[in-house]
Specification:
The complex is a heterodimer of chains A (272) and B (82). With 272 residues, chain A is α/β, with parallel strands linked by helices. Chain A has helices at 14-17, 24-44, 95-107, 122-131, 154-170, 197-209, 212-216, 220-225, 234-242, and strands spanning 2-9, 48-53, 68-71, 75-78, 89-92, 113-115, 138-144, 174-180, 249-256, 261-268. Helix content of chain A is 36%, strand content 22%. In chain A, the strands form two sheets. Chain A has an eight-stranded mixed beta sheet with strand order 6-3-7-2-8-1-10-9, sandwiched between helices. Chain B has 82 residues and is mostly helical. The chains are: A alpha/beta (272), B mainly alpha (82). At the A-B interface, loops of A face helix 1, helix 6 and helix 7 of B.
Chain lengths: 272, 82
């Protein structure tokens, strides 16, 4: 079949846990952005969503930390956080597609880890709560280590996307691909609330132009300098690689100080 | 991470509802299951957020830990910035 839907969006917990703390004019634009992404998803009718995503110590800790982990489970439950403001839900996985993804990776120079047992935290549940509120679409999550160094390099993540693209396009399924996380933020640290709007603007520019060379030239230090949470954008880089340099549109960008995050969303308007 | 055991404990409270319930019932009993220094144990049992941060707990472990205690954001930021 093909990739029928592709998008990326922030997953800041404030969007659900402290929704109304965002200034009204910003909240309006962000909710409209989610509506745009959701309507495009519903029109595309994907059978499965490959979530390029990250999490926050819920599953992965320093006792076993890999660069990438593919979720092979039959089901995924979430959210982990009792304070998030999203009802508990269990989504179906797609173990067969997860295995196809892993086989393609291992045949093409990547050895992600895998797990049959993953709990979803806000990183995956916040976007799903807006995009598929009934939580009935199958998902295959691919987690990126964004928390502990060494992290996979930006160039490596673009390259991973180039390996994933063909296997997703060759699937019999209608595949949607969603990257979550970012943009600039430094949550829970002394610089909490710091948002690097210049960095975010440049990053969105490269993503919307599909400029894989510029995206591959980022260094881990560039992301980290824009805030400790900003390496979550590694997932967006893999999305760019999946979409093979195709351009996209910025659906919204708002630097929301009460959520301590540069909130951004992009959409690839043509099926690939 | 020098605060490996302390971070692991806090993270377990964050992610595991059973550990969380046990912690709220008897924090010292849960603390005893982890290899903490005296300083770490004191900071944990006194809920000294500033001390926990200075000891090296990651913000994405410490802030959720304080959210479970319903600590407002300004109070959290003041504690870690002190």
């Amino acid at each position: 079949m093909s990739i029928v839907y592709a998008a990326a969006a922030s997953h800041a917990p404030g969007m659900r846990a402290w929704t109304k703390q965002a200034p009204g004019h910003q909240l309006e634009k962000i909710l409209a952005g989610w509506d745009t992404l959701r309507q495009a998803l519903e029109a595309a009718k994907p059978d499965v969503l490959v979530m390029l995503t990250s999490e926050h110590w819920a599953n992965f800790f320093l006792d076993n930390m890999g660069a990438f982990c593919v979720g092979r489970g039959e089901h995924f439950a979430g959210p982990v956080e009792p304070w998030l403001g999203i009802e508990n839900a269990t989504l179906d996985g797609d173990p067969a597609l997860a295995t196809e993804i892993l086989n393609a990776c291992y045949a093409n120079g990547f050895e992600p880890g895998f797990s049959h047992e993953i709990a979803f935290d806000h990183g995956t549940m916040v976007p799903l709560s807006y995009l598929t509120p009934d939580m009935k679409t199958r998902v295959v999550p691919i987690f990126f280590n964004t928390l502990a160094t060494p992290r996979p390099s930006p160039a490596r993540c673009v390259a991973l996307g180039k390996v994933l693209g063909p296997v997703l396009r060759q699937s019999n399924l209608r595949v949607g691909v969603i990257a979550t996380g970012g943009l600039s933020h430094d949550p829970g640290e002394r610089n909490h609330g710091f948002i690097d709007s210049d960095f975010d603007a440049k990053f969105l520019d490269a993503m919307t132009k599909g400029d894989l060379e510029a995206l591959s030239r980022y260094a881990d230090a560039d992301f980290f300098a824009a805030g400790g949470g900003t390496p979550e954008l590694l997932a967006w880089l893999t999305l760019a690689g999946v979409m093979a340099g195709q351009g996209s549109d910025t659906v919204c960008y708002e630097a929301v100080v009460p959520w301590a995050t540069g909130i951004g969303m992009i959409n690839y308007s043509k099926a690939a | 991470m020098s605060t490996y055991a302390l971070s692991k404990l806090l993270r377990e409270v964050n992610r595991n509802p059973v550990t969380r319930a046990r912690y709220f019932e008897d924090a010292a009993a849960v603390a005893a299951e982890f290899d903490l220094t005296a300083e770490e144990r004191k900071a944990l049992l006194e809920k000294d957020i500033g001390a926990l941060y200075r000891l090296g707990v990651h913000g994405l472990i410490l802030r959720p830990f304080t959210l479970i205690h319903k600590m407002p954001e300004p109070e959290y930021l003041q504690a870690i910035r002190s």
